[in-house]
């Protein structure tokens, strides 16, 4: 791409950027989606390599599926939706974690969420860890759940933001892959791939969007970069937008990674069942056995543990998971699993993490990040959503909102 021009540049072709691009095109606005990676989808990514099944390395669950716009898009595209309730809404297998103890834990978790939800609007925010029962028996495991949900431990997470997360409790999956639905929604949009945007100069009458492959002149831009990249100024603004950098820094990306293992003699386990590696530790993985009935294990690893394993490399994930599984299922189990796939989202240069959480006291930074600048620089992406952050549908809705604002500004 040499120099070019358009009405609206959409920076980033993930769920938010695709939603925004589609909305602009449908409104008859000329736009260009500029994506750093050689593919669309960003943190939504379905792959097939190494497995006969599609694997969602990023988003897999249509959370709040009864109001999730991606569900309708998937259905309209003829995709099969699986409505099996997720393992986390049922009891896990009673291996290393007796059913009575599980019930006790689930009660403690529910009470924790109730206490978290009791933080009144006028009260000062606190770290979510302040809402744990003092010396509670299940505090470590509740903290582990937080590393799966937020990608970070409770002491780093804003209780107010955590309490604002709005989930209807209906969770479905797309058999052919959630990431595939999102990427397909971008098919046919005007897109440039493999083209990181380096700077947006908004000092003049028109924007100058500088990329590795040339400069695009535009009237407006919708920026959908992960908050961690905005905080690190991997995309620069001239003049600088300090309030955006600060808001983004208050919304760091937590880390959660999925490790996919093939499983021999899988029928021994119930379809869509689950095991916790340990019930007494924060640094433990949760294992989804036979997702969709497939002969696989999907291990979910978050927070400090994921950061440490990422630093040690792919083999460290496998060693960790095998050690936990062997301690639950016996030494022969090691021969039954093989590494299929892992994506380390923390060292991925175009995400540098998995999904955003808010630091204590910073929940309102989501609205600050989403606020347009001069009615021509618009911001979207999961971190901009106050109730659906960290999700693909939250990203979608912020993309639509930013596009609608851009359309309104162009028509005013
Ligand atoms: C392991 C994991 C599991 C998850 N599970 C779920 C789930 O079950 N359900 C759910 O709803 N969500 C889940 N999520 C979260 C969900 O995937 C994200 O919230 C969502 O995809 C974010 O979309 P986005 O458009 O905001 O950001 P992104 O998808 O990150 O899009 C931003 C885009 O900007 C691009 N970019 C970066 N820098 C530049 C640059 N300089 N120039 C141009 N482009 C650039 C990136 O490559 C990327 O494509 C999960 C995520 C992970 C990692």
Walkthrough of the structure:
With 412 residues, the protein is of the alpha/beta class. It contains twelve helices and 22 strands. The protein has helices spanning 15-26, 69-76, 99-117, 139-149, 159-164, 178-185, 227-231, 242-249, 303-312, 314-329, 365-370, 392-411, and strands spanning 4-5, 8-11, 31-34, 46-47, 55-56, 61-62, 81-82, 172-174, 191-192, 197-201, 207-211, 214-218, 220-223, 236-238, 253-254, 256-263, 273-276, 286-289, 296-302, 337-342, 355-356, 377-379. Flavin-adenine dinucleotide binds at residues 11-17, 34-37, 42-44, 58-61, 63, 196-197, 224-226, 229, 234-235, 256-258, 345, 350-351, 354-355, 381-382, 390-393, 395.
Question: Can you give keywords for this protein?
Answer:
412 residues, 22 strands, five-stranded mixed beta sheet, globular, alpha/beta, binds flavin-adenine dinucleotide, single chain, five-stranded parallel beta sheet
Topology:
Elements: E1 4-5, E2 8-11, H1 15-26, E3 31-34, E4 46-47, E5 55-56, E6 61-62, H2 69-76, E7 81-82, H3 99-117, H4 139-149, H5 159-164, E8 172-174, H6 178-185, E9 191-192, E10 197-201, E11 207-211, E12 214-218, E13 220-223, H7 227-231, E14 236-238, H8 242-249, E15 253-254, E16 256-263, E17 273-276, E18 286-289, E19 296-302, H9 303-312, H10 314-329, E20 337-342, E21 355-356, H11 365-370, E22 377-379, H12 392-411
Parallel strand pairs: 1-12, 2-3, 2-13, 3-9, 10-14, 13-22
Antiparallel strand pairs: 4-5, 6-8, 7-8, 10-11, 11-12, 15-21, 16-19, 16-20, 17-18, 18-19
Helix pairs in contact: 1-12, 9-10
Bound molecules: flavin-adenine dinucleotide.
């Amino acid at each position: 791409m040499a120099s070019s021009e358009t009405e609206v540049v959409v920076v980033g072709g993930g769920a938010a950027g695709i939603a925004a691009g589609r909305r602009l095109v449908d409104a008859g606005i000329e736009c260009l989606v500029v994506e750093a990676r050689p593919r669309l989808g960003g943190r939504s990514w379905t792959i097939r390599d190494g497995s006969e099944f599609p694997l969602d390395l990023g988003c897999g669950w249509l959370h709040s599926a009864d109001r999730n716009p991606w569900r309708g898009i998937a259905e309209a595209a003829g995709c099969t939706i699986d409505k099996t309730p997720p393992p986390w809404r049922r009891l896990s297998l009673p291996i290393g974690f007796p059913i009575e103890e599980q019930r006790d834990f689930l009660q403690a978790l529910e009470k924790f969420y109730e206490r978290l939800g009791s933080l009144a609007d006028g009260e000062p925010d606190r770290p979510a860890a302040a809402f744990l029962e003092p010396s509670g028996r299940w505090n470590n495991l509740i903290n582990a759940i937080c590393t799966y949900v937020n990608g970070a431990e409770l002491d780093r997470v804003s209780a107010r933001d955590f309490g604002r997360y709005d989930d209807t409790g209906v969770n479905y999956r797309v058999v052919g892959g959630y990431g595939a639905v999102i990427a397909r929604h971008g098919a046919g949009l005007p897109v440039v791939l493999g083209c990181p945007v380096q700077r947006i100069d908004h000092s003049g009458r028109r924007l100058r969007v500088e990329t590795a492959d040339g400069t695009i002149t535009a009237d407006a831009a919708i920026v959908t970069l992960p908050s961690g990249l905005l905080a690190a100024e991997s995309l620069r603004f001239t003049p600088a937008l300090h309030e955006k950098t600060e808001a983004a820094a208050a919304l760091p990306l937590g880390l959660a990674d999925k490790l996919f293992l093939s499983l021999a003699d899988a029928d021994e386990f119930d379809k869509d069942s689950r095991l916790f590696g340990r019930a007494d530790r924060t640094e433990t993985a949760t294992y989804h056995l036979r997702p969709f009935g497939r002969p696989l294990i999907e291990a979910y690893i978050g927070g400090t543990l994921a950061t440490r394993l990422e630093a040690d490399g792919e083999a460290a994930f496998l060693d960790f998971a095998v050690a936990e599984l062997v301690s639950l299922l016996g030494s022969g189990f090691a021969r039954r699993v093989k590494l299929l796939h892992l994506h380390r989202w923390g060292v991925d240069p175009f995400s540098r993490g998995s999904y955003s959480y808010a630091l204590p006291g910073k929940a309102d930074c989501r609205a600050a990040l989403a606020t347009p600048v001069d009615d021509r620089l618009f911001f979207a992406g999961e971190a901009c959503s106050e109730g659906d952050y960290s999700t693909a549908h939250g990203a979608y809705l912020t993309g639509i909102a930013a596009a609608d604002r851009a359309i309104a500004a162009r028509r005013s």
